[in-house]
Amino acid sequence: MHDTTVLLIELGAVILGLGLVGRFAGRIGLSPIPLYLLGGLAFGHGGFFPLTASEGFIEVGAEIGVILLLLLLGLEYSASELVTSLRTQYPSGLVDFLLNAVPGAVAAVLLGWGPVAAVALAGVTWISSSGVIAKVLTDLGRLGNRETPVILGVLVIEDLSMALYLPLLTALVAGLGLAGTSVAMLVAVGTVGIVLLVALRFGRHISRAVSSNTPEMLLLVVLGLTLLIAGIAAKLQVSAAVGAFLVGIALSGETAENARSLLTPLRDLFAAVFFVFFGLNTAPSQIPPVLLPALVLALVTSVTKVVTGWYAAGRAGVGSKGRLRAGGALVARGEFSIVIAGLAAGTDPRITPLATAYVMILVIFGPLTARWTEPLVRGTKGLFDARRERRAREREQPAPPRAEATPDPVGGGGHAG
User: Fold this and answer.
1) What is the DSSP string of 77-111?
2) Where is 59: in which H helix or E strand?
């Protein structure tokens, strides 16, 4: 009974604290993710208020949070939208991968980490935060801009890539070897292909079978089905998160919309618990040694994301201002980077603090780049153009006439001795 009492007190304090910091973040226009991570650092080992009774419960809640994040992400897309984005945006997706995954892998190598850690850190730096970016675009009133479909297309490619990347990382972390990893990848590719095919041809029938006029029944069926499929996927080394994502893709139409409205508050609650749990596993003393590498990596990958957006929007015929806005909007990292780091935490304990610092930097910096990249580049270019024009005018002006030498009145040209 005493343990239950302590559990309730700790959970109540954590959830109340999350609500207060989330409200504060909303008032100052900031994503609550960095504050959730800071909360986890405060409640974790080596923090100010370490948890004792509720850590196990929070760990299970964190796993549910990841599953709900991916389920709601899948509900955002229909199978036809995913296939269309894959056909039209794959060059941009390839450039996105090369420009943003390579810096993470190179950083892991330079830090002396192993190949599994390099694959994990490549994923941390590669994937942008769909949730943060969508909110920023809404807050800035850019949903109707020409570059917004390009931004969403890049995010769709990244999200779909996770259905293949997460099983690969899961197999590597489990140490399955080349044969086991190949089998896991084949299972993942086959599963994704089958789900897309079934969703395209029979999506309406699946949605009709799951649908219910009673919100309670719809919530229970969709949540139960998602947890079941996620568990089976984890058993097959495909990743529970990918299983949840595929369930979301299989549902469409009115059923998907109703499920999304019912599950969004639940996702927000457990996603907050997930970020807290990630912070719990990071000792605050581990953050200062990795701040400099995290800052350098954040600066490099901010530039590479801007280049990615510039290229992707250019392919769609968007002008230079829109291309800069697209690049600045893609900078934020968040939930996926934390999910990846959490999967790989067992391979190298240094991944967790580095990923925490990296995400905290870019989840704060990302909304600023979305707002200011285009005006800043335009202003800088204006300064350079004005300086260039001034120099050109100076070169075009005629040189002042030379003063003619006057003859020496004495005539000797020298001084009298």
Assistant:
1) --HHHHHHHHHHHHHHHHHHHHHHHHHHHHHHHHT
2) helix 55-75
Q: What is the DSSP letter of 50?
A: -
Nearest to 67 by CA among 214, 199, 225: 225
Q: Which stretches does DSSP call E strand in 169-315?
A: none
Beta strands in 187-309 (DSSP E): none
Place of tokens 């300064």: 383
pLDDT less than 70: residues of the chain: 1-2, 44-48, 53, 237-238, 381-383, 385, 397-417
C-alpha distances out from residue 322 to 147, 182, 293, 370, Å: 6, 41, 31, 11
CA 221 to chain centre: 30
For 186-197, the pLDDT digits (tens) are: 887 887 788 878
Closest CA relative to residue 19, chosen from 276, 272, 263: 272
Distance CA 187, CA 170 (A): 13
Structure confidence at residue 128 (pLDDT): 92
- Is the four-CA dihedral 256, 262, 266, 267 of positive or negative sign? positive
Tokens of 220: 């229970």
Instruction: Calculate the alpha carbon distances from 102 to 86, 108, 124, 355 in Å.
Output: 21, 10, 11, 16
Burial classification of residue 178, based on how many CB atoms lie within 10 Å of its CB (0-12 exposed, 13-18 middle, 19 or more buried): exposed
User: Three-state DSSP class for 349?
Assistant: coil
Question: Which residues does 228 contact at the CB level (< 8 Å), separation at least 6?
Answer: none
Q: Are 223 and 153 in contact (CB under 8 A)?
A: no
* Site of tokens 């495909």: 238
Domain boundaries, the chain: 2-383
Report how far residue 155's alpha carbon sits from residue 145's, in angstroms, rounded to the nearest whole number.
16
Determine contact, residues 121/354, Cβ cutoff 8 Å. Answer: yes
pLDDT of residue 410: 53
pLDDT tens for residues 159-208?
888 888 888 888 888 887 777 788 878 887 887 788 878 877 887 888 88
Amino acid at 150: V
What's the confidence (pLDDT) of residue 237?
66
**116 three-class SS:** helix
Closest alpha carbon to 276 in 116, 42, 2, 28: 42
In CATH terms, is domain 2-383 a member of 1.20.1530.20? yes
Residue 306 CA to residue 373 CA, distance in Å, equals: 8
